[in-house]
């Protein structure tokens, strides 16, 4: 086979979850909750299926769901979004990201990524015959040097990808970051792909700075969201993309032939659930409590914690525990020898910096976090 993606292996999330399962480790690697989602959401799903909503949904998404998303965005940001021409429901954020990338990148184009970057971005760009151009952000705060980003722009650059809050860095953008991004995008006429799947998971009084609230960015961005994150249901694989009509039209040209439409009964259930703002408000407080449950166990095991400003992940420096190991080897060792699975951070860099950091997911039940802490205590 003449491989299209010769350098791409299996995603780290499959690798670590498989390893965790094989060795009976507590899985704090791949990001997903281990507690049930709201029973009302499950009832709404069953009700929609029993009501006969079991055939194809409209290509761009169920009108009721798109209307509920538009109403949410108006309440959340005061931003008016046209449900018909600016919102497309996708099979998860992963598909929305791939679709947005495929709809605007041609062979030979360049797209700028800020590393550590979520692992689907670079392969999605490479699959178009385009080139990912990586700008590295450094621990512990992963601040963006926007001058460095602008230096990475060439006449072939078409797109900048951002992830705010950032997985795995857990950093969040300030309003000044958005201004700096907008200035670069305008000066070089670039499009922006904003992965905002963790929009509601933001801590310590910080506020989410969405591209949808920034007029200059709103005009040139795809913004991508995931119900998997917001409703604790990663297995539902439904998300959406918000973009101005001309960008949404290009997005739908790909979307219609990649998936055509997304699971119909689930879209009905999500529309009903989203109508109640309580379904997405209060998530920060909920996850801040989870974060606080995991932190002491990690610290007493000898990890040095980095600030977790957003997402449901905690970064931890293990240099005091096994300075001899690279992070991939450390994550494997911790899974096999101590029964706790994590994600090495170097895999999210094109050129990994010399740092010893792994990522733990705290979207877990109290008993899971306590059990992990007990296992980790044997390290200290
Ligand atoms: N972007 C980021 C930053 C993520 O962490 C994830 C994983 N949840 C996704 C996109 C993919 O989301 P989905 O499960 O909806 O495809
Ligand atoms: N986004 C999840 C994480 O960062 C994983 C999703 C996936 O496995 N594709 O852990």
Automatic annotation (TrEMBL):
The lineage of its organism: Bacteria, Pseudomonadati, Pseudomonadota, Betaproteobacteria, Rhodocyclales. This is Aminotransferase class I/II-fold pyridoxal phosphate-dependent enzyme. Gene3D superfamilies: Aspartate Aminotransferase, domain 1, Type I PLP-dependent aspartate aminotransferase-like (Major domain). Coiled coil: none annotated. Residues 26-375 form the Aminotransferase class I/classII large domain. Signal peptide: none annotated. GO terms for molecular function: transaminase activity. It holds the Pfam family Aminotran_1_2. Keywords: Aminotransferase, Pyridoxal phosphate, Transferase. Its cofactor is pyridoxal 5'-phosphate.
């Amino acid at each position: 086979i003449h491989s299209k993606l010769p350098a791409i292996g299996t995603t780290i999330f499959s690798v670590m979850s498989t390893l965790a399962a094989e060795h009976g480790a507590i899985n704090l690697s791949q990001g997903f909750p281990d507690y049930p989602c709201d029973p009302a959401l499950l009832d709404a799903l069953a009700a929609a299926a029993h009501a006969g909503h079991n055939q194809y949904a409209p290509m761009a998404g169920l009108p009721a769901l798109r209307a509920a998303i538009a109403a949410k965005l108006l309440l959340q940001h005061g931003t008016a979004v046209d449900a018909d021409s600016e919102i497309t429901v996708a099979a998860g954020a992963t598909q929305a990201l791939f679709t947005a990338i495929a709809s605007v990148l041609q062979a030979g184009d360049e797209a700028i990524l800020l590393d550590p970057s979520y692992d689907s971005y670079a392969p999605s760009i490479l699959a178009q015959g385009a080139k990912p151009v990586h700008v590295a952000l450094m621990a512990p705060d992963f601040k963006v040097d926007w001058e460095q980003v602008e230096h990475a722009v060439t006449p072939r650059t078409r797109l900048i990808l951002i992830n705010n809050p950032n997985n795995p860095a857990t950093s969040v953008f300030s309003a000044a970051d958005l201004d700096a991004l907008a200035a670069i995008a305008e000066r070089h006429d670039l499009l922006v792909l904003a992965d905002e799947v963790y929009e509601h998971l933001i801590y310590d009084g910080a506020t989410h700075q969405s591209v949808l609230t920034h007029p200059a960015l709103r005009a040139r961005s795809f913004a991508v969201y995931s119900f998997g994150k917001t409703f604790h249901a990663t297995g539902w694989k439904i998300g959406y993309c918000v973009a101005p009509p001309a960008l949404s039209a290009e997005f739908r040209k790909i979307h219609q032939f990649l998936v055509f439409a997304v699971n119909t009964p689930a879209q009905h259930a999500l529309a009903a659930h989203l109508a109640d703002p309580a379904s997405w408000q209060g998530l920060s407080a909920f996850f801040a409590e989870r974060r606080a449950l995991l932190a002491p166990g990690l610290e007493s095991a000898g990890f040095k914690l980095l600030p977790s400003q957003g997402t449901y992940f905690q970064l931890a420096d293990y240099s005091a525990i096994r300075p001899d190991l690279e992070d991939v080897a450390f994550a494997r060792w911790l899974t096999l020898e101590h029964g706790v699975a994590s994600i090495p951070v170097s895999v999210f860099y094109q050129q990994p910096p010399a740092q010893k950091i792994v990522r733990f997911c705290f979207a877990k039940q109290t008993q899971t976090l306590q059990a992990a802490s007990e296992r980790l205590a044997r390290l200290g």
